[in-house]
Amino acid sequence: MDRLQAMTAFVRVVESGSFSAAARLMHLGQPAVSKAITQLERQLGVQLLLRSAHGLTPTDAGQRYFERVARIVSDTEEADAAARGSTASLQGRLRVAVPTTFGRLQIVPRLGLLLNQHPRLDIDVELDDRRVDLMAEGIDVAIRVGPLNDSTMIAKRLGRGRRSVLATPAYLASAQALETPEDLGLHQAIGYIRDSAAKYTFRRQEEEISVSLHTRLHLSAAEGIRAAVLADLGLTIAADWMFQPELACGTVVRCLTGWSLPPVDLWIVYPSGKLASAKARAFSDFITRIVEQIEAVAV
To answer: InterPro entries annotated for this entry (predicted)?
Structure first.
């Protein structure tokens, strides 16, 4: 088995968790895969896998090696597919990072379409509100909401989401009247910890008003803000997609509808210094269609 085949065997073992599963994926015998890993460890001079009764797990060196080799194997498979003219069906593993709430509400329920279209494609979805380091964590493509702070990344704006003042009818029934942006100061607001000093600019035709919220509850993640709003604890300013199911059924309503707020930018980003893979581009196209559907609902 040559070096590339051995690297592929190692990647398949880590992904599947066993020699036998990797052997089935590669249409090889289990002894051949086990021998290839042993030879690879001997060539590198380090142990790559920990073998125990509970299965196989990579060592620290093995994990670092896997993160780099997996990209080489993936790129090689895509190059082979392109040469054969078979790029319509993707294969291998795609690692994506998306904000938790956007992923849970808008992406995960639709992933079956992408997986059915590409039966040999595996997808790891990192649901995380923090802005992960794409290179350090081996992410192929990510979705970012709001302004981009890292100018070195390759980015494409997917769209702009409508932003509104949102609350439950139950909270509004128990609170003071909300007729103008200035009235927001009389309300209990729910917001992000990072936005504790934020000011919001409302526009209506030629009129413009900037206000600060009386934010009593600060949270670090969108899931927490959703939970607090749905518990009638106050109002929030957020992208409509964050409460799309509740807006559709009336559990949450828009306030100050005669006024507009600056929209929220939605981006797809790739690691810098590396061309986006065919899998990453296919995922980008998939997300673009989702955003178009969201924008159509918001109109």
So the answer is: LysR-type_TF_proteobact-type, LysR_HTH_N, LysR_subst-bd, WH-like_DNA-bd_sf, WH_DNA-bd_sf
Determine the CATH number of domain 1-86: 1.10.10.10
Cα(210)–Cα(202) distance, integer angstroms: 6
CA distance 118 to 115: 5
Hey, which bits of 170-298 come out as E strands?
Answer: 189-192, 199-204, 207-212, 215-219, 236-239, 253-255, 264-270
Question: For residue range 221-251, what is the model confidence (pLDDT) as tens digits?
Answer: 999 999 999 999 999 999 999 999 999 999 9
How many whole angstroms separate alpha carbon 8 and alpha carbon 26? 9
Instruction: Give the pLDDT means over successive 10-residue stretches in the chain (299 positions).
Output: 89 85 86 93 93 81 88 78 62 89 94 91 90 80 85 81 95 94 94 85 94 91 96 96 94 96 91 73 90 70
Residues 67, 138 contacting (CB under 8 angstroms) = yes
- Cα 66 to chain centroid, rounded: 22
- C-beta of residue 195 within 8 angstroms of C-beta of residue 208: no
Check whether domain 163-262 has CATH 3.40.190.10, yes or no: yes
Tokens of 249: 């059924």
CA distances to 68, 240, 296 from 41, in Å: 16, 52, 54
How long is the chain?
Answer: 299
Side-chain half-sphere CA neighbours of 131 within 13 A: 13
pTM here is 0.68
User: Domain spanning 88-156+264-299 has what CATH number?
Assistant: 3.40.190.10
Q: Which two tokens stand for residue 121?
A: 């494609």
